[in-house]
Amino acid sequence: MIDEHLLKQLVTFADKHTLSATAEHLMLTQPTVTRGMQKLETDLGVKLFKRQSNQITLNQTGQFAVNEARKVLKQNETFMTRVKNYDRSHRIIEVGSNAPGPIIVLNRVAQHTPNIAVQSELIATADLKNKLEDNQYSFIISNQEIQTEQIESYYLNHEQLSVNLDQFMPQANQATIKFKALKGLSFVVFQDIGPWKQIIQDNIPDAKFLYQAQWEALTEITNYASFPYFNTNITAAKNHTGNQVQIPISDPIATMDFYINYLKTRKKLALSLVESIRNNWSSQWAK
Q: Where do the HTH lysR-type domain residues begin and end (predicted)?
């Protein structure tokens, strides 16, 4: 068995090109690195370096060994991460979403459910499957239904997008509104809104979006300025003020279905929380 520390030294030497720089990067002495490289050659039974006066470089076998060492180190890192994630997933119910609305719902559930840890940072849609398979999450709520050999999904509820308009705007006297009626307006929008971001950008003609990275900044603007802004049946109570009229958007794409996605081995746990999640999901415009 080759010592992993020796593989790290070899890879670092390939990146730093000198023994002194390798030693400095790894916070070792240069003689320690020298002995480590000699031991690695002995353990492998091959020569890895070309040694000249005042210079040492990798030979062809050494370059091959570096590539293989990178693979081994990556595999070891993956092994450790997956084992730790698996252990944590059986002690802590790690949950998340790719949209902000379900995060609010999950935080409500966590208030009366022990051992739930809600991750506030949204998960990239492209990463949903890997996050579950690596046991980083016990389950994930997303607008995508995932069905694989290891993962399955269960429908939860929908989220309905609405727009908040100044009460004196001509569009504000409607019971519902379509995206095209919002043409040319400027909106203040929270930066991280997951899949909703592409929907509003693609469906409102000639609109401008003033994205805010901080929720507090968005709240301040919507409280004291007349910019239109968006929320949903989940987020409505969080930032609605008395100066705007909240109008549901009636385009079909403004209604987004959400699913709980989980490993099939965690099905019993996931489904045991479905009723609680649904009960905490706003039904203001439930169909």
A: 2-59
